[in-house]
UniProtKB/TrEMBL annotation:
Limits of the GIY-YIG domain: 3-80
Lineage: Bacteria, Pseudomonadati, Bacteroidota, Chitinophagia, Chitinophagales
Keyword Zinc: no
Keywords from the named record: Membrane, Transmembrane, Transmembrane helix
Protein name listed in UniProt: GIY-YIG nuclease family protein
Alphabetized InterPro entries for the sequence: GIY-YIG_endonuc, GIY-YIG_endonuc_sf, UPF0213_domain
One Pfam family cited in the UniProt record for this chain: GIY-YIG
Length: 98
């Protein structure tokens, strides 16, 4: 049985920068971004600490393909995607840890 995967979008407190990522362990990966576990990575440098979107795929391979598709889309497309599922741009950290 293959692991599930997630595509997710992180942003700053002011929603000014968007970061698209992929992982098989969403809670752990978001915690790493929030705590700047990897201080030299993009999310640490730009202070992307708020999870505003995520989508679960059945396999990590599907998630990787989904990440590539999403990264190729415009910022405007990503904003529409976020607003459809999270109109107030709330931090979804608590939701993924319920």
């Amino acid at each position: 049985m293959q692991k599930a995967g997630f595509v997710y979008i992180m942003t700053t407190i002011t929603n000014s920068v968007l970061y698209v990522g992929v992982t098989s362990t969403l809670s752990q990966r978001v915690w790493q971004h929030r705590t700047k576990y990897y201080p030299n990575c993009f999310t640490a440098k730009y202070n992307c600490v708020k999870l505003v979107y995520y989508y679960r795929f059945d396999t990590i391979a599907e998630a990787i393909a989904g990440e590539k598709r999403l990264k190729s889309r415009s910022r405007a497309f990503k904003i529409v995607l976020i607003k459809k599922r999270n109109p107030d741009w709330k931090d979804l950290w608590e939701e993924i840890n319920e």
